Amino acid sequence: MSECNHDCSSCKSKCASAENAAENPFYVAPNPLSNVKHVIGVVSGKGGVGKSLVTSMLAVAMQRAGYHAAILDADITGPSIPRAFGLHDVEIVGNEDGMFPVNSKTGISIMSLNLLVDEESKPVVWRGPVIAGTVKQFWSEVIWNDVDFMFVDMPPGTGDVPLTVFQSLPLDGIVIVGSPQELVSMIVEKAVNMAKMMNIPILGLVENMSYFVCPDCGKKISVYGESGVEKLAEAHALPILEKLPIDPKLAHMCDTGTIELMQEEYMQEAVRVLEALSEK
Ligand code: ADP
């Protein structure tokens, strides 16, 4: 058989690419030189709830557990991912086969639109379909070499870009992130239902900004009221992967590009759930 170019329209072979394309017309083939074992989407109902922080922490936790983790940053609303890993002024290189992701200090492979724009503070004023196209290119044109777990930092909500990612990338499942209030809101319920309608497994829930520990007396204070995660978990029979506190140390690590130095053993339940995917 001649070399596969993943363009099924010009080929009659019944290979895995052809099967995927027949099953799902939105399927986008990966770069032929890529090898990605598991793809996990990280989603939230709205922005600013810590989705990028959780994506970064999941990648750090899996890398520490001995896997090769990667982040495909599909959330162009801000440079959160490059910033959390201290990636500034890095040059993206490539060759005729594709582009190479950037490697963080501990070897997490990262590709982000924010690495391709010259000024971090300039907004990317692109319409949904253009952004969606870029995200597909990050899958089809970037050479993701021997990645065990890729985390896709999805734009918030259930709009164009999340829909494109859901349809065109071979997601093994998604992790839903929200604040205590947000996890009981309609918008998260919609994200849950969208994943269900598209037969994408929900691997679990992360409640961010769940509580604050008083530095003087050690008391846990539920700043945003009672936790919403239990209700959502119960309603949809979903596991709770983590409840993260509001912690100035976390904000500081994100701001200073040192998330890989995270001391606390966060995300251990998520590591177990993801490892179980590997064993299937
Ligand atoms: P999103 O990706 O949902 O828009 P981010 O992960 O970029 O949100 O987080 C928004 C801001 O809130 C960032 O500055 C981040 O450092 C901060 N932040 C998020 N979660 C926490 C937390 N648990 N404790 C302290 N700061 C947090």
Provide structural commentary.
The longest helix has 14 residues, at 51-64. The model has no long low-confidence stretch (mean pLDDT 89). The protein starts with 15 loop residues before the first helix and ends with a helix. The strands form three sheets. An eight-stranded mixed sheet has the order 5-6-2-7-1-8-9-12, sandwiched between helices. A two-stranded antiparallel ribbon has the order 3-4. The chain contains nine helices and twelve strands. β5 (102-103) and β6 form a beta hairpin. It has 280 residues and is α/β, with parallel strands linked by helices. It binds adenosine-5'-diphosphate.
**Contiguous runs where pLDDT drops below 50 for at least 5 residues:** none
Q: Distance between the terminal alpha carbons, to the nearest Å? A: 31 Å
Q: Helix coverage percent of residues?
A: 25-40%
Order of helices and strands: HEHEHEEEEHEHEHEEEHEHH
Strand percentage lies at 15-25%
Number of strands: 12
Largest sheet: 8 strands, mixed
Secondary-structure-based class equals alpha/beta
Strand order of the largest sheet: 5-6-2-7-1-8-9-12
Shape: globular
Radius of gyration using CA atoms only? 19 Å
